[in-house]
Structures are given as structure tokens and as C-alpha cells.
Amino acid sequence: MPCARTVQGLGSGFYLISNLGPGSRDGLMTGLQKKTNLPIALIRATIEVSAVVFGFYLGGVVGIGTLVFAFGIGPAVSAGLFFVSRFFK
Fold first, then answer.
1. For a designed S-S bond to 78, which of 39, 41, 69, 88 qualifies (C-beta 3.0 to 4.6 A apart)?
2. Distance CA 86, CA 3 (A)
3. Structural domain tally of the chain?
4. Rounded to whole angstroms, how far apart are CA atoms 74 and 12?
């Protein structure tokens, strides 16, 4: 699981830095970061945890993998953005 989060964080870093246009959650993440100046990791984790909570209330199943992803993807995207902007820009 940690390897998958790392790869997704790097992938997000590559496509967000390349200005190809963010997806829905990434667009919300980058927009909120520009408006609030809060860390990307905090904003992305908040978005993902909110999605988990709403999904649970709608009858979805929340397992350990869901929680690990929801809390871990924010720091992974933040690290991916840092790595890509530092070494590939």
C-alpha cells in the first residue's frame, strides 16, 4: 500500500506540474490551496476524508485500506509535487 500511494503521489505531481489541467479533486485541492495558503497535504487529506465520510453515510464500506489511502494521499501528493518541481522542472 505505501508503494501505491507513493506512485500516485508522483503521478499527481507530474501531471499537476505539467499544467495539463487538474481533475475534479485536484482542481478543488489547488483552488483551495491558492485561496487559503494551507498546505496541500492538509487540503487533500481533508477532501479525501470528507469523501470517505459521505460515502459511509450513503451506505459504503470503509475498510483499513480506505482509511490509509484517505489519510496518506495528501502527504504523498505534496511530496510528489515537491519532488517533481525540484528535479524535473
1. 41
2. 21
3. 1
4. 11
- 37 secondary structure, DSSP code: -
Alpha carbon distances (Å) from 39 to 20, 29, 33, 45, 64: 22, 10, 7, 10, 25
Tell me which residue range forms the domain holding 18: 2-87
Each residue's pLDDT expressed in tens, for the chain with a length of 89 residues: 678 888 999 998 898 888 888 888 889 999 999 999 999 999 999 999 999 999 999 999 999 999 999 999 999 999 999 999 998 86
Q: Which of 9, 25, 11, 13 is nearest to 72 (CA)?
A: 9
Contact 22/29 with Cβ under 8 angstroms?
yes
